[in-house]
Hints:
By secondary structure, this protein is mainly α.
Amino acid sequence: MAEFRLTALPEELQHLVVQSVSKNSFGDLFRLRTTSKHMKEITLSPGVYASLNVFEWPSHIPRPLRLYEECFAHGSPSTQYLKGAQYFFLYGFEEEGLAFIKTAADKGFKIALYTYAMVRKAFWDDEEYFSRFDKDDIRKISMYIAEHGWGWGWPPNVTALVAKRDEFMGSVLPSYFTCECSTYNRWFKWHDDLSKGREMCHRCFWTRELGIFFFISLVL
């Protein structure tokens, strides 16, 4: 079979391929950069910076500040999300922070979508973005966050979040135990998949997910 070279593609397709690589693997992106001067130029293009997911940066290598700045300047959803999380959770700039998180969410960045949906529900009882998830999607995202952390790299100011958690525990969570949508198994923790099984009603499902959000937000 004849060898296929990326540079044989039209210029526009080369850019699209490199942008796709940049979303998933910094290692592959760096390897592409070393193949030729032309490919190095493509990897430094605005479209690649806009596509980079800084969450995929290798954990054992320090993340350069300039990388964040370039990605943010070119509209990378991952850095828009991180900026929004910093504003909202660290500095308490709720309006500005939530706007950045929403921008990243509307671009399809799933961690931002999860955070925005849960914050809107926790603080303003708004369920608009819940319709963008199915049950498997949201569980995969929450498990990813529980394993890897949020990614903002600093301890958030959680005073408001703690207050909302306490409000949730006192006035919302009890309905989870009393709802008759399915039998509650008291031998399992309330946030365990097995506590009510997969047949729980819409309200109970999102009550559980909101509880998990509070747990991972205040522990990680």
